Amino acid sequence: MCGIFGVYNLPGDANAFRQRALFLSKKLRHRGPDWSGCTVAGNHILCHERLAIVGVDSGAQPLTNDDESLILSVNGEIYNHKALRKLCPADTHFKTQSDCEVILHLYKQYGADVVKHLDGMFSWVLLDTKKNRILAARDPIGITTLYQGWSSKQPGTIYFASELKALNEECDRIIAFPPGHIFDSESGETTRYFEPTWWDGDKIPDTPVDYQLIREALEKAVRKRLMSEVPFGVLLSGGLDSSLIASIAARETQKIIDGVPLNHDGDDVDESAVASWPRLHSFSIGLEGSPDLAAARVAAQYLKTVHHEYTFTVQDGLDAVADVIYHLETYDVTTIRASTPMYLLSRKIKAMGVKMVLSGEGADEIFGGYLYFHSAPSAAELHTETVSRVKNLHYADCLRANKSTMAWGVEARVPFLDKAFLEVAMNVDSKEKMSDKKIGRMEKYILRKAFDTSDDPSVAPYLPDEILWRQKEQFSDGVGYSWIDSLKDTALARVSDETFAKAAERWPLDTPQTKEAYWYREIFEQWFPQDACTESVVRWIPRGDWGCPADPSGRAQKVHDSAYEPTA
Length: 568
Fold this sequence. Notes:
The chain has 568 residues and is an alpha+beta fold. The protein has helices spanning 18-26, 81-85, 102-110, 211-224, 240-257, 272-276, 291-303, 314-328, 333-351, 363-367, 379-391, 397-406, 419-425, 445-450, 465-468, 475-478, 481-494, 497-501, 503-506, 515-527; strands spanning 3-8, 35-41, 44-50, 63-64, 70-78, 120-128, 133-138, 147-150, 158-161, 173-176, 181-184, 189-192, 232-235, 281-286, 306-311, 356-358, 411-413. The chain is globular, with a radius of gyration of 23 Å. Its EC number is 6.3.5.4.
Protein backbone atom coordinates (compact mmCIF):
# COMPACT_ATOMS: atom_id res chain seq x y z
CA MET A 1 0.00 0.00 0.00
CA CYS A 2 0.94 3.60 -0.40
CA GLY A 3 -0.30 7.13 0.19
CA ILE A 4 -2.14 9.12 -2.46
CA PHE A 5 -3.11 12.78 -2.68
CA GLY A 6 -4.90 14.55 -5.49
CA VAL A 7 -6.73 17.74 -6.32
CA TYR A 8 -9.14 18.11 -9.21
CA ASN A 9 -10.11 21.42 -10.80
CA LEU A 10 -8.00 23.89 -8.85
CA PRO A 11 -8.72 27.55 -9.62
CA GLY A 12 -5.90 28.55 -11.97
CA ASP A 13 -2.69 26.73 -12.82
CA ALA A 14 -1.98 23.80 -10.51
CA ASN A 15 1.77 24.52 -10.73
CA ALA A 16 1.19 27.36 -8.31
CA PHE A 17 -0.17 24.81 -5.84
CA ARG A 18 2.56 22.23 -6.46
CA GLN A 19 4.72 23.05 -3.44
CA ARG A 20 1.69 23.07 -1.16
CA ALA A 21 0.57 19.74 -2.61
CA LEU A 22 4.00 18.24 -1.93
CA PHE A 23 3.78 19.46 1.65
CA LEU A 24 0.36 17.88 2.13
CA SER A 25 1.42 14.66 0.43
CA LYS A 26 4.44 14.48 2.73
CA LYS A 27 2.03 14.06 5.64
CA LEU A 28 1.36 10.61 4.17
CA ARG A 29 5.00 9.59 3.73
CA HIS A 30 4.86 7.09 6.59
CA ARG A 31 2.59 5.09 4.29
CA GLY A 32 5.09 5.15 1.44
CA PRO A 33 8.67 5.85 2.48
CA ASP A 34 10.27 4.30 -0.65
CA TRP A 35 9.64 7.05 -3.21
CA SER A 36 7.58 10.17 -3.90
CA GLY A 37 5.99 11.37 -7.13
CA CYS A 38 4.01 14.37 -8.31
CA THR A 39 2.33 15.06 -11.66
CA VAL A 40 0.64 18.30 -12.69
CA ALA A 41 -1.76 18.44 -15.63
CA GLY A 42 -3.57 21.72 -16.28
CA ASN A 43 -5.39 22.65 -13.10
CA HIS A 44 -5.15 19.17 -11.61
CA ILE A 45 -2.44 17.55 -9.53
CA LEU A 46 -1.77 13.98 -8.34
CA CYS A 47 0.85 12.95 -5.77
CA HIS A 48 2.03 9.57 -4.54
CA GLU A 49 4.05 8.23 -1.61
CA ARG A 50 5.20 4.71 -2.50
CA LEU A 51 5.63 1.51 -0.52
CA ALA A 52 7.23 -0.84 -3.03
CA ILE A 53 6.01 -4.45 -2.79
CA VAL A 54 5.21 -5.48 -6.38
CA GLY A 55 7.12 -4.13 -9.38
CA VAL A 56 9.72 -2.86 -6.94
CA ASP A 57 12.20 -1.59 -9.53
CA SER A 58 9.78 -0.02 -11.99
CA GLY A 59 6.50 0.86 -10.33
CA ALA A 60 6.99 4.49 -9.28
CA GLN A 61 3.82 6.58 -9.41
CA PRO A 62 1.81 8.45 -10.56
CA LEU A 63 1.57 6.08 -13.52
CA THR A 64 0.89 7.37 -17.04
CA ASN A 65 0.09 5.89 -20.44
CA ASP A 66 2.33 6.48 -23.48
CA ASP A 67 0.99 9.93 -24.41
CA GLU A 68 0.52 10.86 -20.73
CA SER A 69 -3.13 11.67 -21.27
CA LEU A 70 -4.05 9.27 -18.47
CA ILE A 71 -2.56 9.71 -15.00
CA LEU A 72 -3.12 7.28 -12.15
CA SER A 73 -2.28 7.30 -8.45
CA VAL A 74 -3.04 4.06 -6.58
CA ASN A 75 -2.86 2.77 -3.03
CA GLY A 76 -3.25 -0.98 -2.87
CA GLU A 77 -2.74 -4.31 -4.59
CA ILE A 78 -4.52 -5.82 -7.60
CA TYR A 79 -4.30 -9.57 -7.06
CA ASN A 80 -5.62 -10.54 -10.51
CA HIS A 81 -3.41 -8.13 -12.46
CA LYS A 82 -1.78 -10.86 -14.57
CA ALA A 83 -5.15 -12.20 -15.65
CA LEU A 84 -6.32 -8.66 -16.41
CA ARG A 85 -3.30 -7.98 -18.60
CA LYS A 86 -4.58 -10.71 -20.89
CA LEU A 87 -7.75 -8.65 -21.46
CA CYS A 88 -5.73 -5.77 -22.90
CA PRO A 89 -5.04 -5.50 -26.66
CA ALA A 90 -1.94 -7.39 -27.80
CA ASP A 91 -0.11 -4.16 -28.65
CA THR A 92 -0.63 -2.62 -25.20
CA HIS A 93 2.63 -1.14 -23.92
CA PHE A 94 3.20 -1.70 -20.22
CA LYS A 95 5.82 0.65 -18.84
CA THR A 96 6.23 -1.11 -15.50
CA GLN A 97 5.77 -4.40 -13.68
CA SER A 98 3.38 -2.74 -11.25
CA ASP A 99 0.19 -4.66 -10.56
CA CYS A 100 -1.68 -1.34 -10.74
CA GLU A 101 -0.72 -0.22 -14.25
CA VAL A 102 -3.36 -2.49 -15.79
CA ILE A 103 -6.03 -0.09 -14.47
CA LEU A 104 -4.84 2.56 -16.93
CA HIS A 105 -5.09 0.32 -19.95
CA LEU A 106 -8.39 -1.31 -19.03
CA TYR A 107 -9.91 2.13 -18.46
CA LYS A 108 -9.52 2.74 -22.19
CA GLN A 109 -11.69 -0.33 -22.82
CA TYR A 110 -14.20 -0.22 -19.98
CA GLY A 111 -14.27 3.37 -18.74
CA ALA A 112 -15.55 3.64 -15.18
CA ASP A 113 -16.53 -0.05 -15.25
CA VAL A 114 -12.84 -0.95 -14.98
CA VAL A 115 -13.33 -1.06 -11.22
CA LYS A 116 -15.73 -4.00 -11.55
CA HIS A 117 -12.92 -6.15 -12.98
CA LEU A 118 -10.49 -5.59 -10.10
CA ASP A 119 -9.84 -8.18 -7.42
CA GLY A 120 -7.84 -6.61 -4.65
CA MET A 121 -7.65 -3.89 -2.04
CA PHE A 122 -7.30 -0.43 -3.49
CA SER A 123 -8.04 3.26 -3.50
CA TRP A 124 -7.16 5.14 -6.64
CA VAL A 125 -7.62 8.38 -8.52
CA LEU A 126 -7.44 8.40 -12.32
CA LEU A 127 -7.25 11.59 -14.37
CA ASP A 128 -8.24 11.58 -18.05
CA THR A 129 -6.79 14.85 -19.34
CA LYS A 130 -8.43 14.59 -22.77
CA LYS A 131 -11.89 14.47 -21.22
CA ASN A 132 -11.03 16.62 -18.20
CA ARG A 133 -12.45 13.75 -16.19
CA ILE A 134 -11.45 12.28 -12.86
CA LEU A 135 -12.45 8.94 -11.35
CA ALA A 136 -11.90 7.89 -7.76
CA ALA A 137 -12.64 4.42 -6.40
CA ARG A 138 -12.29 2.41 -3.21
CA ASP A 139 -12.20 -1.36 -2.76
CA PRO A 140 -15.44 -3.21 -1.92
CA ILE A 141 -15.05 -3.39 1.88
CA GLY A 142 -12.74 -0.44 2.54
CA ILE A 143 -9.57 -2.29 3.44
CA THR A 144 -7.65 0.68 2.13
CA THR A 145 -8.45 4.19 3.33
CA LEU A 146 -9.63 7.10 1.19
CA TYR A 147 -11.02 10.52 2.03
CA GLN A 148 -12.74 13.12 -0.13
CA GLY A 149 -12.88 16.81 0.69
CA TRP A 150 -14.21 20.15 -0.47
CA SER A 151 -13.49 23.79 0.37
CA SER A 152 -16.18 26.45 0.32
CA LYS A 153 -13.46 28.89 -0.79
CA GLN A 154 -12.91 26.84 -3.96
CA PRO A 155 -16.30 25.73 -5.33
CA GLY A 156 -15.82 23.00 -7.90
CA THR A 157 -12.48 21.83 -6.51
CA ILE A 158 -12.32 18.29 -5.14
CA TYR A 159 -9.61 16.83 -2.92
CA PHE A 160 -8.69 13.17 -2.36
CA ALA A 161 -6.22 11.65 0.10
CA SER A 162 -5.41 8.37 1.82
CA GLU A 163 -5.67 10.02 5.22
CA LEU A 164 -7.56 12.85 6.84
CA LYS A 165 -4.40 14.66 7.90
CA ALA A 166 -3.61 15.65 4.30
CA LEU A 167 -6.97 17.42 3.92
CA ASN A 168 -7.95 18.97 7.24
CA GLU A 169 -6.04 22.21 6.66
CA GLU A 170 -7.50 22.71 3.18
CA CYS A 171 -11.10 21.48 3.36
CA ASP A 172 -14.11 22.49 5.42
CA ARG A 173 -15.97 19.29 4.57
CA ILE A 174 -14.30 15.86 4.60
CA ILE A 175 -15.90 12.43 4.29
CA ALA A 176 -14.63 8.89 4.36
CA PHE A 177 -15.06 7.85 0.73
CA PRO A 178 -17.58 4.98 0.75
CA PRO A 179 -16.18 1.50 0.06
CA GLY A 180 -17.41 -0.27 -3.05
CA HIS A 181 -18.13 3.06 -4.77
CA ILE A 182 -16.69 5.09 -7.62
CA PHE A 183 -16.85 8.84 -8.17
CA ASP A 184 -17.05 10.17 -11.72
CA SER A 185 -16.65 13.90 -12.36
CA GLU A 186 -18.58 13.58 -15.63
CA SER A 187 -21.77 12.96 -13.68
CA GLY A 188 -20.64 14.42 -10.40
CA GLU A 189 -22.04 11.32 -8.72
CA THR A 190 -20.63 8.64 -6.45
CA THR A 191 -22.23 5.30 -7.26
CA ARG A 192 -21.96 1.82 -5.79
CA TYR A 193 -20.30 -0.69 -8.11
CA PHE A 194 -20.00 -3.54 -5.58
CA GLU A 195 -23.23 -5.53 -5.65
CA PRO A 196 -22.78 -8.88 -3.89
CA THR A 197 -25.68 -11.23 -3.32
CA TRP A 198 -25.54 -10.78 0.46
CA TRP A 199 -25.73 -6.97 0.58
CA ASP A 200 -29.35 -6.77 1.75
CA GLY A 201 -29.17 -7.56 5.45
CA ASP A 202 -32.89 -8.21 5.62
CA LYS A 203 -32.60 -11.08 3.15
CA ILE A 204 -31.88 -14.02 5.45
CA PRO A 205 -29.80 -16.78 3.78
CA ASP A 206 -30.68 -20.46 4.03
CA THR A 207 -27.84 -22.09 2.08
CA PRO A 208 -26.69 -25.26 3.86
CA VAL A 209 -23.20 -25.02 5.29
CA ASP A 210 -20.51 -26.57 3.10
CA TYR A 211 -17.41 -26.97 5.26
CA GLN A 212 -15.16 -27.97 2.39
CA LEU A 213 -16.23 -24.95 0.35
CA ILE A 214 -15.50 -22.61 3.27
CA ARG A 215 -12.07 -24.16 3.71
CA GLU A 216 -11.15 -24.07 0.03
CA ALA A 217 -12.40 -20.49 -0.41
CA LEU A 218 -10.27 -19.25 2.48
CA GLU A 219 -7.23 -21.17 1.25
CA LYS A 220 -7.56 -19.52 -2.14
CA ALA A 221 -7.98 -16.12 -0.51
CA VAL A 222 -4.72 -16.58 1.39
CA ARG A 223 -2.91 -17.96 -1.65
CA LYS A 224 -3.60 -14.95 -3.85
CA ARG A 225 -2.38 -12.63 -1.10
CA LEU A 226 1.09 -14.15 -1.19
CA MET A 227 1.77 -11.91 -4.22
CA SER A 228 4.92 -10.10 -3.12
CA GLU A 229 8.49 -9.36 -4.17
CA VAL A 230 9.59 -8.49 -0.62
CA PRO A 231 9.79 -10.45 2.66
CA PHE A 232 6.45 -10.94 4.39
CA GLY A 233 5.03 -12.54 7.52
CA VAL A 234 1.85 -13.16 9.48
CA LEU A 235 0.37 -11.48 12.53
CA LEU A 236 -0.25 -14.25 15.03
CA SER A 237 -2.25 -13.49 18.15
CA GLY A 238 -2.91 -17.13 18.95
CA GLY A 239 -6.63 -16.63 18.36
CA LEU A 240 -8.56 -18.66 15.81
CA ASP A 241 -8.57 -16.13 12.97
CA SER A 242 -4.92 -15.18 12.79
CA SER A 243 -3.86 -18.76 13.50
CA LEU A 244 -5.91 -20.12 10.58
CA ILE A 245 -4.41 -17.53 8.24
CA ALA A 246 -0.93 -18.42 9.50
CA SER A 247 -1.62 -22.14 9.09
CA ILE A 248 -2.77 -21.76 5.48
CA ALA A 249 0.11 -19.41 4.66
CA ALA A 250 2.57 -21.92 6.14
CA ARG A 251 1.14 -24.70 3.97
CA GLU A 252 1.20 -22.58 0.83
CA THR A 253 4.76 -21.36 1.36
CA GLN A 254 5.85 -24.93 1.99
CA LYS A 255 4.39 -25.89 -1.38
CA ILE A 256 6.59 -23.26 -3.01
CA ILE A 257 9.64 -24.58 -1.18
CA ASP A 258 8.73 -28.08 -2.36
CA GLY A 259 8.43 -26.87 -5.93
CA VAL A 260 4.64 -27.12 -6.21
CA PRO A 261 3.40 -24.26 -8.45
CA LEU A 262 0.68 -22.08 -6.93
CA ASN A 263 -0.34 -20.20 -10.07
CA HIS A 264 -3.59 -22.01 -10.74
CA ASP A 265 -7.27 -21.08 -10.83
CA GLY A 266 -6.31 -17.58 -11.92
CA ASP A 267 -4.20 -16.82 -8.84
CA ASP A 268 -1.36 -14.35 -9.40
CA VAL A 269 1.23 -15.57 -6.91
CA ASP A 270 4.78 -14.26 -7.12
CA GLU A 271 6.99 -16.85 -5.47
CA SER A 272 10.21 -14.79 -5.36
CA ALA A 273 9.66 -13.49 -1.82
CA VAL A 274 9.20 -17.03 -0.49
CA ALA A 275 12.29 -18.18 -2.35
CA SER A 276 14.40 -15.44 -0.76
CA TRP A 277 12.98 -15.88 2.77
CA PRO A 278 11.63 -19.44 2.75
CA ARG A 279 10.46 -19.99 6.32
CA LEU A 280 7.30 -18.14 7.26
CA HIS A 281 7.83 -15.54 9.97
CA SER A 282 5.13 -14.84 12.57
CA PHE A 283 4.77 -11.90 14.94
CA SER A 284 2.93 -11.47 18.23
CA ILE A 285 2.76 -8.88 20.99
CA GLY A 286 1.34 -8.62 24.49
CA LEU A 287 1.97 -7.63 28.05
CA GLU A 288 4.22 -10.00 29.96
CA GLY A 289 2.29 -13.21 30.63
CA SER A 290 -0.67 -12.30 28.41
CA PRO A 291 -3.09 -14.95 27.04
CA ASP A 292 -2.27 -14.09 23.43
CA LEU A 293 1.48 -14.51 23.83
CA ALA A 294 1.05 -17.96 25.34
CA ALA A 295 -1.41 -19.08 22.65
CA ALA A 296 0.67 -17.62 19.81
CA ARG A 297 3.67 -19.55 21.10
CA VAL A 298 1.70 -22.79 20.89
CA ALA A 299 0.46 -22.03 17.37
CA ALA A 300 3.88 -20.95 16.09
CA GLN A 301 5.57 -24.04 17.48
CA TYR A 302 2.96 -26.23 15.83
CA LEU A 303 3.23 -24.42 12.48
CA LYS A 304 7.04 -24.28 12.68
CA THR A 305 7.17 -20.58 11.86
CA VAL A 306 10.13 -18.36 12.72
CA HIS A 307 8.33 -16.69 15.59
CA HIS A 308 9.01 -13.21 16.92
CA GLU A 309 7.44 -12.42 20.28
CA TYR A 310 7.43 -8.91 21.66
CA THR A 311 6.26 -7.57 24.99
CA PHE A 312 5.25 -4.06 25.86
CA THR A 313 4.55 -2.42 29.19
CA VAL A 314 1.40 -0.56 30.12
CA GLN A 315 3.44 2.63 30.14
CA ASP A 316 4.71 1.92 26.61
CA GLY A 317 1.10 1.69 25.50
CA LEU A 318 -0.06 4.78 27.35
CA ASP A 319 2.81 6.80 25.91
CA ALA A 320 1.75 5.77 22.40
CA VAL A 321 -1.98 6.57 22.68
CA ALA A 322 -1.71 10.14 21.37
CA ASP A 323 0.34 9.03 18.37
CA VAL A 324 -2.07 6.18 17.72
CA ILE A 325 -5.01 8.60 17.58
CA TYR A 326 -3.04 10.82 15.19
CA HIS A 327 -2.51 7.92 12.83
CA LEU A 328 -5.96 6.34 13.23
CA GLU A 329 -7.87 9.62 12.87
CA THR A 330 -10.67 8.36 15.08
CA TYR A 331 -11.79 8.56 18.70
CA ASP A 332 -13.63 5.22 18.75
CA VAL A 333 -12.83 3.50 22.04
CA THR A 334 -12.53 -0.12 20.96
CA THR A 335 -10.48 0.80 17.88
CA ILE A 336 -7.94 2.74 19.91
CA ARG A 337 -7.69 0.01 22.55
CA ALA A 338 -6.84 -2.62 19.95
CA SER A 339 -4.75 -0.42 17.68
CA THR A 340 -2.16 0.58 20.25
CA PRO A 341 -0.46 -2.84 20.59
CA MET A 342 -0.80 -3.38 16.83
CA TYR A 343 0.90 -0.02 16.24
CA LEU A 344 3.77 -0.98 18.56
CA LEU A 345 4.13 -4.39 16.92
CA SER A 346 4.22 -2.87 13.43
CA ARG A 347 7.22 -0.77 14.39
CA LYS A 348 9.09 -3.91 15.43
CA ILE A 349 8.10 -5.66 12.21
CA LYS A 350 9.31 -2.78 10.05
CA ALA A 351 12.62 -2.77 11.91
CA MET A 352 13.16 -6.33 10.66
CA GLY A 353 12.76 -5.23 7.05
CA VAL A 354 9.31 -6.78 6.58
CA LYS A 355 6.89 -4.75 4.45
CA MET A 356 3.82 -6.98 4.27
CA VAL A 357 1.89 -9.13 6.74
CA LEU A 358 -1.23 -11.26 6.56
CA SER A 359 -3.83 -10.60 9.24
CA GLY A 360 -7.10 -12.10 10.45
CA GLU A 361 -9.51 -9.15 10.44
CA GLY A 362 -13.10 -9.74 9.32
CA ALA A 363 -13.87 -13.23 10.59
CA ASP A 364 -15.71 -12.04 13.70
CA GLU A 365 -17.98 -9.80 11.66
CA ILE A 366 -18.64 -12.49 9.04
CA PHE A 367 -19.31 -15.40 11.40
CA GLY A 368 -20.72 -13.58 14.42
CA GLY A 369 -17.58 -14.23 16.41
CA TYR A 370 -17.68 -11.44 18.98
CA LEU A 371 -18.97 -12.66 22.30
CA TYR A 372 -21.92 -10.26 22.24
CA PHE A 373 -23.32 -12.32 19.35
CA HIS A 374 -24.19 -14.96 21.97
CA SER A 375 -26.97 -12.52 22.94
CA ALA A 376 -28.52 -12.38 19.46
CA PRO A 377 -32.28 -12.90 19.89
CA SER A 378 -32.60 -14.86 16.64
CA ALA A 379 -30.67 -16.15 13.66
CA ALA A 380 -32.26 -13.49 11.46
CA GLU A 381 -31.14 -10.67 13.75
CA LEU A 382 -27.67 -12.17 13.99
CA HIS A 383 -27.39 -12.19 10.19
CA THR A 384 -28.59 -8.61 9.87
CA GLU A 385 -26.00 -7.59 12.44
CA THR A 386 -23.18 -9.43 10.63
CA VAL A 387 -24.06 -7.68 7.36
CA SER A 388 -24.07 -4.33 9.12
CA ARG A 389 -20.73 -5.07 10.79
CA VAL A 390 -19.08 -6.09 7.50
CA LYS A 391 -20.43 -2.99 5.75
CA ASN A 392 -18.95 -0.78 8.49
CA LEU A 393 -15.58 -2.47 8.84
CA HIS A 394 -13.94 0.56 7.19
CA TYR A 395 -14.76 2.59 10.31
CA ALA A 396 -13.31 0.02 12.69
CA ASP A 397 -11.14 -3.07 12.12
CA CYS A 398 -10.15 -2.25 8.53
CA LEU A 399 -9.21 1.24 9.63
CA ARG A 400 -7.20 -0.21 12.51
CA ALA A 401 -5.43 -2.82 10.42
CA ASN A 402 -4.58 -0.33 7.70
CA LYS A 403 -3.48 2.69 9.70
CA SER A 404 -1.79 0.92 12.64
CA THR A 405 0.51 -0.90 10.25
CA MET A 406 0.91 1.81 7.63
CA ALA A 407 2.03 4.22 10.33
CA TRP A 408 5.34 2.37 9.95
CA GLY A 409 5.16 1.50 6.24
CA VAL A 410 3.88 -2.06 6.71
CA GLU A 411 1.05 -3.39 4.57
CA ALA A 412 -1.62 -5.64 6.12
CA ARG A 413 -3.58 -8.01 3.88
CA VAL A 414 -6.82 -9.55 5.10
CA PRO A 415 -7.87 -12.81 3.39
CA PHE A 416 -11.20 -13.11 5.24
CA LEU A 417 -12.43 -10.05 3.30
CA ASP A 418 -11.80 -11.62 -0.08
CA LYS A 419 -14.83 -11.03 -2.34
CA ALA A 420 -15.20 -14.68 -3.28
CA PHE A 421 -14.87 -15.83 0.31
CA LEU A 422 -17.51 -13.34 1.41
CA GLU A 423 -19.90 -14.73 -1.21
CA VAL A 424 -19.54 -18.15 0.37
CA ALA A 425 -19.50 -17.20 4.05
CA MET A 426 -22.18 -14.50 4.06
CA ASN A 427 -24.69 -16.76 2.30
CA VAL A 428 -24.54 -19.63 4.81
CA ASP A 429 -27.80 -20.34 6.63
CA SER A 430 -27.72 -17.86 9.51
CA LYS A 431 -28.88 -20.50 11.98
CA GLU A 432 -25.48 -22.17 11.51
CA LYS A 433 -23.80 -19.07 12.97
CA MET A 434 -25.76 -19.06 16.20
CA SER A 435 -23.79 -19.80 19.37
CA ASP A 436 -25.16 -21.75 22.31
CA LYS A 437 -23.04 -22.22 25.39
CA LYS A 438 -25.53 -24.71 26.84
CA ILE A 439 -24.72 -27.27 24.16
CA GLY A 440 -21.08 -26.24 23.74
CA ARG A 441 -21.58 -24.62 20.32
CA MET A 442 -18.90 -21.95 20.26
CA GLU A 443 -18.85 -18.68 18.39
CA LYS A 444 -17.58 -19.18 14.81
CA TYR A 445 -18.40 -22.87 15.10
CA ILE A 446 -18.71 -23.43 11.34
CA LEU A 447 -15.33 -21.81 10.66
CA ARG A 448 -13.69 -23.98 13.30
CA LYS A 449 -15.44 -27.08 11.99
CA ALA A 450 -14.36 -26.33 8.41
CA PHE A 451 -10.75 -26.68 9.50
CA ASP A 452 -11.28 -29.57 11.91
CA THR A 453 -9.87 -32.55 10.00
CA SER A 454 -10.03 -35.00 12.90
CA ASP A 455 -12.43 -37.15 10.90
CA ASP A 456 -10.02 -37.42 7.97
CA PRO A 457 -6.66 -38.99 8.93
CA SER A 458 -5.30 -38.31 5.42
CA VAL A 459 -5.29 -34.55 6.07
CA ALA A 460 -2.78 -33.10 8.52
CA PRO A 461 -4.48 -30.96 11.20
CA TYR A 462 -4.41 -27.24 10.48
CA LEU A 463 -4.10 -26.30 14.16
CA PRO A 464 -3.92 -28.00 17.54
CA ASP A 465 -7.31 -28.31 19.21
CA GLU A 466 -6.37 -25.89 21.98
CA ILE A 467 -6.06 -23.15 19.33
CA LEU A 468 -8.77 -24.29 16.92
CA TRP A 469 -11.32 -24.37 19.74
CA ARG A 470 -9.98 -21.48 21.82
CA GLN A 471 -12.67 -19.03 22.96
CA LYS A 472 -12.71 -15.61 21.33
CA GLU A 473 -10.50 -13.00 22.95
CA GLN A 474 -10.71 -9.51 21.50
CA PHE A 475 -7.20 -8.34 20.65
CA SER A 476 -7.35 -5.51 23.18
CA ASP A 477 -8.17 -8.12 25.87
CA GLY A 478 -5.86 -10.87 24.68
CA VAL A 479 -2.72 -8.72 24.82
CA GLY A 480 -3.23 -8.59 28.59
CA TYR A 481 -6.29 -7.86 30.69
CA SER A 482 -4.54 -5.04 32.54
CA TRP A 483 -4.20 -3.07 29.28
CA ILE A 484 -7.84 -1.98 29.12
CA ASP A 485 -8.00 -1.61 32.90
CA SER A 486 -5.04 0.77 32.77
CA LEU A 487 -6.63 2.85 30.01
CA LYS A 488 -9.77 3.24 32.09
CA ASP A 489 -7.79 4.12 35.22
CA THR A 490 -5.73 6.69 33.33
CA ALA A 491 -8.85 8.33 31.95
CA LEU A 492 -10.40 8.45 35.43
CA ALA A 493 -7.31 10.26 36.69
CA ARG A 494 -7.12 12.70 33.77
CA VAL A 495 -10.77 13.64 33.38
CA SER A 496 -12.40 15.13 36.45
CA ASP A 497 -16.06 14.63 37.33
CA GLU A 498 -16.67 18.34 36.79
CA THR A 499 -15.09 18.27 33.34
CA PHE A 500 -16.92 15.13 32.30
CA ALA A 501 -20.26 16.59 33.41
CA LYS A 502 -19.87 19.24 30.71
CA ALA A 503 -19.12 16.78 27.91
CA ALA A 504 -22.43 17.44 26.16
CA GLU A 505 -21.78 21.19 26.21
CA ARG A 506 -18.39 20.71 24.57
CA TRP A 507 -19.52 18.06 22.09
CA PRO A 508 -23.31 18.13 21.66
CA LEU A 509 -23.00 15.68 18.78
CA ASP A 510 -21.50 12.24 19.42
CA THR A 511 -21.05 13.06 23.09
CA PRO A 512 -18.57 10.80 24.94
CA GLN A 513 -20.35 8.48 27.37
CA THR A 514 -17.33 7.50 29.46
CA LYS A 515 -14.23 9.26 30.72
CA GLU A 516 -12.11 7.03 28.52
CA ALA A 517 -14.09 8.16 25.47
CA TYR A 518 -13.76 11.78 26.62
CA TRP A 519 -9.98 11.45 26.88
CA TYR A 520 -9.69 10.06 23.35
CA ARG A 521 -12.01 12.73 21.93
CA GLU A 522 -9.91 15.43 23.57
CA ILE A 523 -6.70 14.06 22.04
CA PHE A 524 -8.38 13.76 18.63
CA GLU A 525 -9.42 17.41 18.80
CA GLN A 526 -5.86 18.45 19.61
CA TRP A 527 -4.64 16.78 16.42
CA PHE A 528 -7.66 17.65 14.29
CA PRO A 529 -9.35 20.80 15.64
CA GLN A 530 -11.35 21.57 12.50
CA ASP A 531 -15.08 20.84 12.60
CA ALA A 532 -14.81 18.98 9.29
CA CYS A 533 -12.75 16.21 10.85
CA THR A 534 -15.53 14.50 12.81
CA GLU A 535 -17.84 13.65 9.89
CA SER A 536 -15.61 10.72 8.92
CA VAL A 537 -15.60 9.21 12.44
CA VAL A 538 -18.12 6.56 13.47
CA ARG A 539 -18.08 5.08 16.96
CA TRP A 540 -19.14 1.48 17.52
CA ILE A 541 -21.69 1.15 20.30
CA PRO A 542 -22.60 -2.30 21.72
CA ARG A 543 -26.12 -3.63 21.19
CA GLY A 544 -27.88 -2.46 24.30
CA ASP A 545 -31.16 -3.76 22.86
CA TRP A 546 -29.63 -7.26 23.04
CA GLY A 547 -28.85 -6.76 26.71
CA CYS A 548 -25.15 -6.16 26.07
CA PRO A 549 -23.12 -4.02 28.49
CA ALA A 550 -21.98 -0.59 27.33
CA ASP A 551 -18.28 -1.52 27.52
CA PRO A 552 -17.20 -2.99 24.14
CA SER A 553 -14.61 -5.25 25.77
CA GLY A 554 -15.14 -8.96 25.24
CA ARG A 555 -14.46 -9.50 28.94
CA ALA A 556 -17.54 -7.41 29.73
CA GLN A 557 -19.80 -9.99 28.06
CA LYS A 558 -21.48 -12.50 30.35
CA VAL A 559 -20.38 -15.45 28.24
CA HIS A 560 -16.67 -14.69 28.64
CA ASP A 561 -15.25 -17.59 30.62
CA SER A 562 -11.73 -18.99 30.45
CA ALA A 563 -13.09 -22.35 31.61
CA TYR A 564 -15.55 -22.65 28.71
CA GLU A 565 -15.39 -26.18 27.34
CA PRO A 566 -16.76 -26.49 23.79
CA THR A 567 -17.77 -29.65 22.00
CA ALA A 568 -16.30 -30.16 18.57
